[in-house]
Amino acid sequence: MTKRILVPIAPGTEEMEAVTIIDILVRANYDVVVASADFSGQLTMKASRGVTLTADCKLVDVADEEFAAIVLPGGLGGAEVFRDSTLLVEIVKQQKYDGRLVAAICATPAVMLEHHQLYPKAIMTCHPSLQERIPEQRWRNRRVTFDVNHNLLTSQGPGTALEFAIEIIAQLSGKQRAKEVALPLIPLPQLHYDKQEEA
After folding, report:
1. Which tens digits make up the pLDDT trace of 124-166?
2. What is the pLDDT of residues 13-33, one digit of tens each?
3. 182, 159, 134, 53 alpha-carbon torsion, rounded to 10°
4. Are 116 and 89 in contact (CB under 8 A)?
5. Of the candidates 159, 187, 131, which has an alpha carbon nearest to the alpha carbon of residue 170?
6. Looking at the whole model, is its pTM more than 0.90?
7. 126 is catalytic
8. Are 193 and 178 spatial neighbours (Cβ–Cβ below 8 Å)?
9. Which of 35, 88, 106, 107 is catalytic?
10. Rg for the chain (alpha carbons), in Å?
């Protein structure tokens, strides 16, 4: 069965992160549902740098559906909308309760997840400019961080979005599938699930 992935977007979402995440997960043959968390219910919105993004549906339309992963792009404005969306917070709480993957990048781990104490014991990273919002003992200065005990994947920003998306595939479908998706993209050598695995 094809894995379904929920990617919420909002006004102010970081477009580079959103598009990279959506593109890479589509390349992995996942069923990616892009849902608008915009409070007005608009499907089309301006991202953080003015690029227009369009969702497939409203978040409320898929609130009761199950997803293999919920992937939350960053961008400070978008992360603040996520933080203030009672519906999205409840969806993430349910995802966590069910033991399914939650992934968040850039501002969102600090602005949404930490604000609501959704993962109060998890290690995580976020955009370095916001690291003071995460307790030092749980902060990791790594481009991509996975807390296996909480099934939480976090990453730092637009420049880490590709490896973040590839790691989502690795967590959902294994390193071999991640390698198959990554290699044709000509990523940085350290992103290859190739020589690293053989070492």
Report:
1. 999 999 999 999 999 999 999 999 999 999 999 999 999 999 9
2. 999 999 999 999 999 999 999
3. -90
4. yes
5. 187
6. yes
7. no
8. yes
9. 106
10. 16
